[in-house]
Amino acid sequence: AQSVTQLGSHVSVSEGALVLLRCNYSSSVPPYLFWYVQYPNQGLQLLLKYTSAATLVKGINGFEAEFKKSETSFHLTKPSAHMSDAAEYFCAVTRGGGSTLGRLYFGRGTQLTVWP
Amino acid sequence: DAGVTQSPTHLIKTRGQQVTLRCSPKSGHDTVSWYQQALGQGPQFIFQYYEEEERQRGNFPDRFSGHQFPNYSSELNVNALLLGDSALYLCASSSLAGSDTQYFGPGTRLTVL
Predict the structure, then answer these.
(1) Fewest CB atoms within 10 A around its CB: which of A40, A84, B26, B81?
(2) Is the pLDDT of residue A91 over 90?
(3) Low-confidence residues in chain B, pLDDT < 50
(4) Cα pseudo-dihedral A60, A40, A102, B96, rounded to 10
(5) Would you say residue A52 has pLDDT above 80?
(6) What 3 state SS string does chain B have?
(7) Which residues pair with B57 in a beta bridge?
(8) CB contact under 8 A, A106 and B43
(9) Residues of B in contact with A101 (CB under 8 A)
(10) Residue partners of B17: CB distance under 8 A and separation at least 6
């Protein structure tokens, strides 16, 4: 079985500061990991994904995440926050394996607030 | 290239009624998954359809049912609505053969009064 824990339901940063959103996963098989962003009253947009290639993954809007198997973590970072980054962020896990795309298990989300 | 589309955008129903939500997958995708996102929560998997059959199902009662059509579009049906069914319902599409990513639609906001 797979599960995700997102530490911190709310994170606040100043514009220009480092963004760090934490995600730890549990998986009995090699995982695929994803970060999605959700703006108010919208669906989920894919930020980046880890699918067993490079452990440091770069995504859209300057975000990146590093897969650390020893720590079972997949934390999301951005060097300099922008006001437009304010949104809800979800980490998700599914079993790896290529063509067999299974269900996604989501964390409870982290609301990012960016102060001017 | 159109992304995943869902209809309607918003829906208001009363307890005990039935509702049907619709989803059209991204072009080239053949698999549709449905998720329920309650307020303040992460999405929860309802079920997944491929080749017009339910392949996987999450921990949802039989009141939740679905269908996939030959053109890969899908419907989610919920019978005997409860107040607790109020949520954002998200559809995600993917390609079983070639994609490792699910792409989400904008969702349908269901309110049960």
Answers:
(1) A40
(2) yes
(3) none
(4) -70
(5) no
(6) CCCCEEECCEEEECCCCCEEEEEECCCCCCEEEEEEECCCCCCEEEEEEECCEEEEECCCCCCEEEEECCCCCEEEEECCCCHHHCEEEEEEEECCCCCCCCEECCCEEEEEC
(7) B47
(8) yes
(9) 31, 94, 96, 99-100, 102
(10) B81, B112
The reported pLDDT for the residue numbered A41 is 82
Q: Determine, for residues A103 and B31 on separate chains, whether the beta-carbon distance falls below 8 Å.
A: no
**Residues from chain A contacting residue B94 (CB–CB below 8 Å):** 101
Average pLDDT estimate for A38-52: 90
The pLDDT value recorded for residue A51 is 86
C-beta of residue B106 within 8 angstroms of C-beta of residue B39:
no
What local confidence, expressed as pLDDT, does residue B95 receive? Answer: 84
CB of A32 within 8 A of CB of A45?
A: no
Answer whether B87's CB lies under 8 Å from B110's CB. Answer: yes
Residue whose pair of structure tokens reads 């300057």 in the numeric block: A62
Determine the residue type at B61: P
Determine what percent of chain A is predicted with pLDDT higher than 70: 95
Task: Give chain A's mean pLDDT.
Answer: 91
> CA-to-CA distance for B60 and B57, rounded, in angstroms?
8
